[in-house]
Specification:
Strand order of the largest sheet: 1-2-3-7-9-12
Strand content: 15-25%
Largest sheet: 6 strands, mixed
Structural class: alpha/beta
Number of strands: 12
Shape: globular
Number of helices: 10
Helix content: 40-55%
Distance between the termini: 36 Å
Length: 259
């Protein structure tokens, strides 16, 4: 049984953490399977958007509890990171396609860092997000220490990081980490609906726009202007530009090819 299941619905790929008996904690197999799933998503021209979800059970659902501490404490166990993807085979992975987190339950420690590595977040109103590492004399070493402040602001992030206490989905939504809230058990369907909405847009323009938005976190304005001009030049030379203009003039839905 795969630790990360992969399926497609139309142009959307769904990558599902599938280790509920261990609160979807990340071990070496999860990291390896996730990297393989992202490889598959990125290589498939028919897939335009990815979703990361999780199999959950019980009255206290957990999206992911982060690193499997038993695996860390087991000599010779497979690493919880991959060379290209970092922790969980995902958090530092370079990719062209947007990925949306579908969260229904607790995303803590490395589980929260998986969420922070996604481009958008849908969460049920019973979800929460935390970086609890300081409670175990650990460091949130998979991007949480710099991605959380970018997402919710330094003051709020500092409190979450230094206390180790989770942030409710409602508060995370108010602060800008969560794009949309939904009812319990509805996160996946709500996320797929958003993914399908993105798929109505031209995939090349989506990929190029995403690249500049992400770079805005660390590049200066001159670099961002150059990146924007390069992106504009690329889409202006594409067949999809002609299709987009024709569809607008003919008042019909465009048929994108990604070229």
């Amino acid at each position: 049984m795969a630790m990360v299941e992969y399926e497609t619905r139309g142009r959307v790929a769904i990558l599902t953490l599938n280790r509920p008996e261990a609160r979807n904690a990340v071990n070496g197999e999860v990291a390896s399977d996730m990297e393989a799933a992202v490889d598959r998503m990125e290589a498939d021209p028919e897939v335009w958007v990815g979703v990361i979800s999780a199999t959950i059970t019980g009255d206290r659902p957990v999206f992911s509890a982060g690193a499997d501490l038993k695996a860390i404490n087991t000599p010779g166990a497979a690493p919880l990171a991959t060379e290209r993807g970092g922790f969980a085979g995902f958090v530092y992975r370079e990719r062209a396609k947007p990925v949306i987190a579908a969260v229904d339950g607790l995303a803590t420690a490395g589980g929260c860092e998986i969420v922070l590595a996604c481009d958008l977040v849908i969460a049920s109103n019973r979800s929460s997000f935390g970086l609890a590492e300081v409670k175990r004399n650990l460091i949130a070493g998979a991007g949480g220490l710099f991605r959380l402040p970018r997402a919710i602001g330094r003051a709020a992030a500092m409190e979450v990081i230094l206390t180790g206490e989770p942030l409710s989905a409602q508060r995370a939504h108010q602060l800008g980490l969560v794009n949309r809230l939904c009812e319990p058990d509805a996160s996946l369907n709500t996320t797929i609906a958003l993914a399908e909405q993105i798929c109505l847009s031209a995939p090349m323009a989506v990929a190029e726009s995403r690249k500049v938005v992400l770079a805005a976190d660390y590049e200066d304005d001159d670099t961002l202007k150059a990146m924007t001009n390069a992106a504009m030049g690329k889409v202006m030379r594409s067949a999809d530009l002609k299709e987009g203009l024709a569809a607008s003039i003919e008042k019909r839905a465009p048929q994108w090819t990604g070229h």
